[in-house]
Amino acid sequence: MTTTQGAQVTTPAGRVAARITTVTSPTLLLAVLYPVVGALAAGPVGVAWSLIGMLFTVAVPAFIVDRGVRTGRYTDHHLREREQRAVPLGLAALSVAIGVVVLFVLGAPRAITALQLAVLVTVAVATGITLVWKVSFHTAVVAAAAAVLTLLGGPWWALAWLAVPAVGWARLVLRAHTLAQVLAGLVVGAGVSTAVLLLAGVP
Predict the structure, then answer these.
(1) What pLDDT, in 10s, does the model give residues 20-47?
(2) Which of 72, 104, 138, 198 is buried deepest, with most CB atoms within 10 A?
(3) Could you read off the pLDDT of 64-85 as tens digits, one per residue?
(4) Three-state SS for 133?
């Protein structure tokens, strides 16, 4: 964590923002999103299928980042330093891509395969941007999750969008991103996920 961010965490707003950032980390959000999508798409069987997607989208990328932090290659699990993002995000995209192939070959429900593809395209686009500009992955993933849940679950699941401004606010309070970077993450996450699911015929 940088000195500026550390100073922000000492304030009441900073402590709240730090907690929001932790509980809405991309890895944790995806770990929650996958079984929910599986249940909405195909009930208990869908949840079982979602575990396969989680292996490639959550477990493998989390291992890569955790290993990098433990060896000192990365400063933290949130990859706050833009220069440190390219390799772990590239490897994460490769893992997610393998997951797309596996789910498709095994005949997973369309919604789960489409979610895997949506994550892949979102990661690829955001990684491309982050090579030159630090787009907010936190906002991208929470916006993507809100869009997916709204499409699959209907009006009540649209309440998930309430998490988007909360996460954006937290990233701004911690000075992890500018407003433009937060908004860009929102557009990338929601836009890409919505487009992929609709093109895949989901719902």
Answers:
(1) 999 999 999 999 999 999 999 899 999 9
(2) 138
(3) 988 888 888 888 776 777 677 7
(4) coil
Query: Could you tell me the CA-to-CA distances from 92 to 57, 88, 187 in Å, in that order?
Result: 7, 6, 21
Q: Please, what is the end-to-end C-alpha distance for the chain in angstroms?
A: 40
**How many other C-beta atoms are found inside a 10 Å radius of the C-beta of residue 22?**
12
State how far Cα 142 lies from the chain centre.
6
Q: What is the pTM of this model?
A: 0.87
Residue 81 main-chain phi, psi, to 5 deg: -80, 115
Going by pLDDT thresholds of 50, 70 and 90, the confidence category of residue 8 is low
**Region for residue 72 given its phi and psi (left: phi exceeds 0; alpha: psi -120 to 50; beta: otherwise):** left
Using alpha carbons, list the distances in angstroms from residue 61 to 9, 40, 89.
27, 25, 8
